[in-house]
Amino acid sequence: MNPLIYPYILETHNLYKSFKGFVAVSDVNLRIKKGSIHALIGPNGAGKTTCFNLLTKFHSVTSGKILFKGEDISSLQPPEIASKGLIRSFQISAVFPHMTVLENVRIALQRKIGTQYHFWKSSASLKHLDPQVMELLEVVGLSGFSKELAVQLPYGRKRVLELATTLAMDPEMMLLDEPTQGMGHEDVLRVTNLIAKVSQGRTVLMVEHNMKVVASIANQISVLQRGAVLAEGTYDEVSKNPLVLEAYMGTVEVS
Questions:
Q1: What DSSP string describes the chain?
Q2: Are 195 and 37 in contact (CB under 8 A)?
Q3: Which of 58, 83, 186, 227 is deepest in the core (most CB within 10 A)?
């Protein structure tokens, strides 16, 4: 397989997960193009977050395969997968609340360079990372908040900080779980524009309920229902699909 020709960075082959007899994900086949923003959508309980947990091995695969850049990563552990450049964020803000914005991003950079366990070193010894931290904060619009404690940030900016810590890991592919959940209109717009900005040169797979966000930035969409892929295509294609409209009836607006 020539990586310069083969367009898919992430694939699943017949991905299946059951929990004590309950089938959460059934025969899911995904193909994520390198450099794209791919959205995973579906009604509540459709299996979206379970898929994310399988891709990053927070859940083990019952059967099927996960390929990242052509390599079978189905049996790897989360740190091994992260080290390969597949990094995820979570539905809830996952930052250290009583550290500053700068310190949060600096910790993520430490993880990248492998010094996160050097507890005996003083914070002064990490100052050489600060210019790189400030560059990342400038990218996400948080440079003016570098000395603020994370707990003091408004919710929307905490999610932006989480995105900054994800970027600090230098991901080749980012998995974003509900990146705009619980945000007001202005924060949704800010984070949507930010995702589009930082996706340049990267691949993004995101679970997202806000269809305006999906419509504005997703190149391709996979729709899950009851743990299986119901439809795939562009936003225009899936939003007119009768099966998708039926699945969403009474939950969210697709168009």
A1: --TTT--EEEEEEEEEEEETTEEEEEEE--EEETT-EEEEE-STTSSHHHHHHHHTTSS--SEEEEEETTEE-TT--HHHHHHTTEEE--SS--S-TTSBHHHHHHHHHHHHHT-TT-TTS-GGGGGGGHHHHHHHHHHHT-GGGTTSBGGGS-HHHHHHHHHHHHHHT--SEEEEESTTTT--HHHHHHHHHHHHHHTTTSEEEEE---HHHHHHH-SEEEEEETTEEEEEE-HHHHHT-HHHHHHHTTT----
A2: yes
A3: 227
Q: What is the spatial distance between Cα 45 and Cα 224, in angstroms, rounded to a whole number? A: 9
Please tell me the pTM assigned to this model. Answer: 0.87
Q: Which two tokens stand for residue 190?
A: 């800010």
Inter-residue contact 189 to 195 (CB < 8 Å):
no
Per residue in 26-83, pLDDT (tens digit) is 999 999 999 999 999 998 889 998 998 999 888 999 999 999 999 999 999 988 898 8
How many CA atoms are closer than 13 Å to the CA of 220, on its beta-carbon side?
16
Task: Give me the CATH code for the 1-84+212-255 domain, please.
Answer: 3.40.50.300
Q: What is the CA radius of gyration of the chain?
A: 19
Taking the C-alpha atoms of residue 132 and residue 250, their distance in angstroms, rounded to an integer, is: 47
The tokens describing 236, both together, are 């225009």
